[in-house]
Amino acid sequence: MNKKHTLTLFTAALLLAACNPTHTRTYSADDGSVTATCRWQGDDSTAAQWQFTGKDGKPLVQPCDSIAVSERGLDGHPMTVTFFQGNRQQWRQYYSTMLPRAEGTLVDGQREGRWVFYFANGNIQCESSYHQGRENGTYRVLRENGAPYYIGRYRDGQRTGTWEIYDEQGNLIGKQEYGD
Predict the structure, then answer these.
(1) b/e for 37-67, b at 16 or more Cβ within 10 A?
(2) How far apart are CA 92 and CA 90, in angstroms?
(3) What is the rounded average pLDDT of the residues 106-130?
(4) For strand 137-142 and strand 158-166, is the pairing parallel, antiparallel, or unpaired?
(5) For residue 155, what pLDDT is reported?
(6) How far apart are CA 67 and CA 89, in angstroms?
(7) Residue 29 above 80 pLDDT?
(8) Distances in whole angstroms, Cα of residue 66 to Cα of each of 16, 30, 139
(9) Distance (Å, rounded) from C-alpha 116 to C-alpha 102?
(10) What distance in Å separates the CA atoms of residue 100 and residue 158, rounded to the nearest whole number?
(11) 18 to each of 47, 75, 120, how far by Cα in Å?
């Protein structure tokens, strides 16, 4: 999927606020890679439901009540986009190249589930899991070349078990033990 078309589509979708709240509006990227559909349940435009789907018809993000662009690049493209659904927010941040920089979910303002941060080349930099705002589960930090830097686990925000440290080629060079 072309990130430039995706972000342009997100920007266009923001303009849907002016559409008739009793109708469904659908917009697609020129290449068909992304489709945005907006539906209102009555006359209140704040009750809109947004759905973003890929070429295959599968959702790109969960359906949302609204979206917000909180940061724009020099070229005007969205750099930080938040999708709202009730108390849940899907947060996405992009580099100026339109590649993802970071993505994750907030529930009641706290990190929840999988969070991923990326290098500018598109490779994963850090991948972690959260529960109620605290690290919980595997925590992986990678080098820009994709080799692991260190890998460990968190339980309720505390390091636990064996953490492994790797050299620049991805060879294990050390371990650190943390109490359970």
Answers:
(1) bbbbeeeeeeebebbbbeeeeeebbeebebb
(2) 7
(3) 95
(4) unpaired
(5) 96
(6) 9
(7) no
(8) 11, 23, 31
(9) 6
(10) 28
(11) 14, 24, 35
Question: In this model, does residue 75 exceed pLDDT 90?
Answer: no
Contact between residue 80 and residue 92 where contact means Cβ atoms under 8 Å apart: yes
Task: Please report which residue ranges of the chain form alpha helices under DSSP H.
Answer: 3-14
| pTM given for the model | 0.68
**Amino acid found at 15:** L
3-state secondary structure of 34: strand
E-only strand ranges, 29-147: 34-39, 49-54, 66-72, 78-85, 88-94, 100-107, 110-118, 124-131, 134-135, 137-142
Cα–Cα distance for residue pair 33/143, rounded to 1 Å? 30
Strands 158-166 and 88-94: unpaired
